[in-house]
Amino acid sequence: MSKDTKKTAVISSEELQRQEQFSQKVSSAVSARYSSKPLACVITYGCQQNVADSEKIKGMLELMGYDFTSDRLEAQLIIFNTCAVREHAEDRVFGNVGSLKSYKREHPDTIIALCGCMMQQKHIADKIKKSYPFVDLVFGTHVIHQLPELLYRAMTGRRRVFEIPDMDGAIAEGIPVKRDNDAKAWLPIMYGCNNFCTYCIVPYVRGRERSREKADIIKEFKELVNQGYKEITLLGQNVNSYGKDLTPNVSFASLLRELNDIDGDFRIRFMTSHPKDCTFELIEVMAQCEKVAQHLHLPFQSGSDRVLKAMNRHYTRGQYLKLINYAKELMGDELSITSDIIVGFPGETYEDFKETLSLVEEVKATSLFTFIYSPRKGTPAAEMPDPISAEEKSKWFKELTDLQEQISASQMALHKGKVFKCYVYGKGKLGDNYVAARNDGNLIIEFEGDESLIGTFQKVKVIEPLTFVMRGEMLKEKEI
Ligand code: 5AD
Ligand code: SF4
Asked: Is the Cβ–Cβ distance between 231 and 186 less than 8 Å?
C-alpha cells in the first residue's frame, strides 16, 4: 500500500444512480421473497467511525425495504461491522460469527455478511473464505456505498461475494443515514489516516486521509440542526488535519468557527485530535465558540519520550503538556480532558511506564481509555522485540487504572458547587422526579425537574458528586 497522499475523489453521480437501481432490485426481490418486511440485524464493533458507517448501512437497507431488529436470530440479514484495532475485538467477531454456523444450516435463506476494518486485512478475508463457508457476503471499508449491488449479488447469485478492493476509497455523498439516536448525531468530516503510528492498523485498513468538502459538511450539519439534533460530533481519525488535502486548504479551526455561527440550540463535539497537529488556534477557537463543547479528547498514548518516538507519534511529553496547560489556562474549570493510553508497547520498560503514570497525574483527565498493547499483523511494532510478559503488563495496567480512578474521583469532588451547561437527555435514576443531563465533559448530572425539560439545554449547579453521577440543581434563568 502506498503512503502517498492522494487527491480527494468523490463517487460519481452515475455510480450512485447505478446503486439506486440495485436498491430497487433488492427491494423487489425482498418483497417477492418475504410475506412481511424482512428484518436486518446490524452488529457494530469498535469506534464511532464504525457506528457512523453502520448508520449508513442501515439507511441503505431501509430504502431496500428492511426493518431492524437487535435479535440476530430473528433477522433475515445479519451484518457484522467489524473492528481491527485490537485482537480482542477480532476474537469476539470470530466467536460470534462462528456461533451462527449451525443456525445457518437450519436457516439457509438468512444472509450473513461481514464488513469493516477487519475484512480489509487479507489474512482475515482469506480465513473467512476458507473456514467460514456459511458467510455469504464480505465487503471492505471502501465500498460501503455499493451495498445494494453486493447484496443483490449475494441474494441472487450462486457464489459467495467478496468485494475488498485494496485502494483508498473515494467519498460517497448523499448516502441515506438511519441514525440510532434522535438527539445525538455523528458527522464524519474526513476518512482515513496518514500517521502510521507503529502499533496501529487503521492507516492500512482505512486508507489515506480524505476530507469531505466544507460545503457538504455544512449542508449536512444544517440539516441535522433543523431536524432537532442537539449534539453533533464531528468525526475523523485525526480531525486536526482536516482540510489539508482540499483546494484551497481549510483548517479545522475555521470549520469549527463556521459551524458555531450556524443558528440554533446545539452543542458541537469532535474527535479524535492528534497532539502533533493540534494547534493553539484550535484551543482558542474552542474557548471562544460558545456551542463547541469544552471537551478535548487528546490521546497521548505514553508519557515516555522514548516510547513516543518508537510509536512514531511526532511529539514529546513536554509539547503535549504545553497544549494541555494552554487549554486549561483558556477554559479553566469548564474544560474536560480525556485521553487514550497504551500500556506495554514493545520495548517499554517499567521506567517508561512510570513516566506515563506521572503524566496521568499531571494531566488530570476526566477519564481515560486505557489499552494493553495488542500486536497487529503488518504494523512495524508487531516486529519489535517485546520481552515483557502479559502478566507484567496486566499489573502495570491495573496500576494505571487504579491511579486514574482516584484522579477521576477527586476531579468529581472538585465539581461541587460548579455550574455546568447540560443537555437533558432523559429520566433520572436518583428518584422519580429526577431528570438526567450531560455536561460538556459527558459527565451525568441528575436534578429534580419536569420531563418537559428533556431535549433542552439547562444550567445546572452540582450539589453532591456521587460515584458515577452528580446530584445537581437547575438554575432558574435559562442562559443558553
Ligand atoms: N494495541 C492497543 N491499543 C491500540 N490502539 C490503537 N492500536 C492499538 C494496538 N495495536 C488504541 C490507541 C488509539 C485507540 C483508538 O486505540 O490508544 O488511540
Ligand atoms: Fe492509528 Fe495513529 Fe492514525 Fe490514530 S493517528 S488512527 S492511532 S495511526
From this structure: no
